[in-house]
Amino acid sequence: MRILMVGPWRAEAMRRHIDWALEGGAEVCAVDYWSRRDRGRPTSFELAYLSPRQTAALIGAKPNRRSQAASRRAALRLRHIAAHFQPDVIHSYMLNSYTDACLQAGLRPLVVSVWGFLNRWLTGDATAEDRRWLARLGDSAHTLLVESPNFLPVLPRRPLASVNLLSAPVGIDYGLFRPGYLDEAAAWRFVLDIPPDAVVLLSARGWSKVYSQLQIVQAFAQAYHQFGKPMMLVLRGLGRTKRPERLAQDAVALAAELGVAHAVRWIPNIPYEDLAAVYAVADIVLNYPIADAFPSTLLEAAACGRPIITSDLPAYRNTFVERCCTRVPPNDPAALADAIVALATAGPAAWAAQAEPARQAVLAEYDEATQKQRLWALYERLASPLGLGKGLLST
After folding, report:
1. Residue 61 confidence (pLDDT)
2. Do 163 and 142 form a contact (C-beta atoms < 8 A)?
3. Contact between 259 and 221 (Cβ < 8 Å)
4. Which 8-state DSSP code applies to residue 274?
5. H helix runs in the chain, sequence order
6. Predicted confidence band at 4 (pLDDT cuts at 50, 70, 90)?
7. How far apart are alpha carbons 26 and 302 in whole angstroms?
8. Quick one: average pLDDT of 214-238?
9. Which residues, other chains included, contact 192 with Cβ-Cβ below 8 Å and sequence gap of 6+?
10. pTM
11. Within 13 Å and on the Cβ side, how many CA atoms surround 56?
């Protein structure tokens, strides 16, 4: 089986899909925009570019992905790549230039991992652009993979009548994400100069205004001054915007202004296989986006036995998050600060009492092996001669 995957191949969620396909015996060609970071090319799968640097039309100019000319070039380039690779299945990621190129190139059968690009349908704030995407997907896509099951009843059926909808969170490797890692956590605390008696809060989401790092710093400062005992905030350095350092600089300045800069620590964007040790550093994990789908961060933190304080968002309804996590309104740093103080004051016994039900729920509902089998079964169905027709709406 040959699978053409179109998207940001360095992103962990897509890379895990690539690895799953390779484990299943598929040949994979990942297609992305050219990046200087690709000087060390992968050896287990092919890598091709929608905007190769060596293309004559692009020499000396950085392509504008949003322009119509760049969009047409990407689609033509992708069609050429597909003609050479001859894929049985095409899997694109995000409703942006990646999936646009697949649609313009007319590639089928097409699976689309939506990630957070349909979140406005959960809040009733869908835009005309959101509706146009559904119309285009309804004409060309075979299956949409959404992370939260809450999308299934709210997406309008008419434009998607012939498209499969599947709730497909990436899932958790329980052998990796688990309680423990005491030696690694002690090493991190030493490197970060964290006092042994400090309550440690971890913010592990990507740096973006959507994920509210500035509000987290503001809430932490308020909680720090109320708590009266040592407390530290650890921020993971994972860029989600083109210049995340600007937002990080704002966070540093805000922490200094609020008198808590000495209590803020930074962890770089470390490899995925080392993340569990970072969760082990934390006493409490903070997840405070203003909008979301269903992030791996929550699954990872819960699987590691960490209590979670999170935004109360529609995407989390009817899941373990609603049952097992402390939830506060988004865009309300004061409410977040109150929740931090209350949980920090409750102490380790209360943390364990909250974390264990969440861990058991994640173990029962989000096994990576199950998600891997479901995705592989979808690929096999589409790759078979009888699997190219569009199916019925399903869960």
Report:
1. 42
2. yes
3. yes
4. G
5. 12-23, 68-85, 97-105, 120-123, 128-140, 182-191, 213-227, 244-257, 275-281, 296-303, 320-324, 333-346, 348-365, 368-383
6. very high
7. 32
8. 94
9. 232, 234, 265, 267, 281
10. 0.86
11. 0
Question: Does residue 190 carry a pLDDT above 70?
Answer: yes
Return the SS3 of 28: strand
Q: Using alpha carbons only, give the angle 137, 138, 144 rounded to the nearest 5 degrees.
A: 60
Cβ proximity of 9 and 32 under 8 Å = yes
384-to-1, 99, 253, 257, 381 alpha-carbon distances in Å: 9, 23, 57, 61, 5
H/E stretch holding 111: strand 110-113
pLDDT category at 58 given cuts 50, 70, 90 is very low
**Of 278, 324, 315, the residue nearest 295 (C-alpha):** 315
Per-residue pLDDT, 208: 85
> What's the order of all strands across the beta sheet hosting 164-167?
46-49, 27-32, 2-6, 89-93, 110-113, 143-146, 164-167
Which candidate, 52, 7, 17, 11, places its Cα nearest to that of 171?
A: 17
pLDDT tens digits for 133-148? 999 999 999 999 998 8
Q: What distance lies between CA 353 and its chain's CA centroid? A: 27
Is the model's pLDDT at 6 over the cut of 60? yes
Q: Are 174 and 303 in contact (CB under 8 A)?
A: yes
Per-residue model confidence as pLDDT tens digits over 124-136 = 899 999 999 999 9
- Which sign, positive or negative, has the C-alpha torsion 266, 316, 361, 346? positive
Pairing of strands 199-203, 231-237: parallel
Determine the distance from the C-alpha atom of residue 230 to the mean position of all C-alpha atoms in its chain, rounded to a whole number: 31
Task: State yes or no: pLDDT of 56 exceeds 80.
Answer: no
The CA distance from 127 to 134, in Å, is 11
Q: What are phi and psi of 213, to 5 degrees?
A: -60, -35
Instruction: Categorize the per-residue pLDDT at 295 as very low, low, confident or very high, splitting at 50, 70 and 90.
Output: confident
8 Å CB contact between 220 and 254 = no
